[in-house]
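Methods, example record. To illustrate the input and output format used throughout this study, we show the complete record for IS200/IS605 family transposase. The sequence lines were provided to the predictor; the line carrying structure tokens was produced by it.
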Amino acid sequence: MGTDENIRTGRHCVFRPHAHLVFTTKYRHAVFADRHLRRCAEIMRAACEDFEAEPTEFNGGADHVHLLVNFPPKIAVSRLVNSLKGVPSRKLRREFPDLTRHHWRAQRLWSGSYFAGSVGGAPLSVVRQYIEQQTRPL
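The corresponding predicted structure is encoded as:
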């Protein structure tokens, strides 16, 4: 096995799983400005630490976010997603009351669905470039 700085080790394994996650806002409302996205990235980075996961790329638009995350194999993607959607939803709605006006019925920031794609076969540089190009529409 060659040397690769992206390979991580656990007690009984060597791993490098990455997932490309996409979360959309409830009803696809265009609610995010740059300040919301910056804070969302900070919150998601902290949430990843609780799972020993490493966010390697983050970007988004007015109605969605993209996250490329490296996570240990002991973590189920669904558990990671649950935390990555729940914690930012609570914190962003508390810190930015203007976000709640778009979700008066459901009191949820995110849609109940999400996209999770394995990027093991794609070069990470290609996925990073794709996420970097996902900018907020004006």
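Annotations derived from this record:
The chain has a mean pLDDT of 85.
DSSP finds three helices and six strands in the chain.
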